[in-house]
């Protein structure tokens, strides 16, 4: 390591990414992924299908928790 570093041209926060923007990978079990791919169709992505199913589950859960 150097004794001194020159930070004169440094930019604070240059590589900062808010936690809300970080996309975490989700790994599906093989049987679940195979089932969803059959239901996926050609127009929707697997990600869109999973998001739609989860939104419906959230909506149902909110009906029972209210």
Structure characterization notes:
The protein is mainly α and 66 residues long. It has one domain. It is 47% helix and 0% strand. The chain has two helices and no strands. It has helices spanning 30-40, 46-65. It is elongated.
Please tally the helical runs, counting DSSP H or I stretches of 4 or more residues.
2
**Largest sheet properties:** none
Radius of gyration: 22 Å
Kindly estimate the percentage of residues that lie in beta strands according to DSSP. under 5%
Brief description of this entry?
This protein is mostly helical and 66 residues long. The protein is 47% helix and 0% strand.
Provide the descriptors you would attach to this structure in a database record.
66 residues, mainly alpha, 0% strand
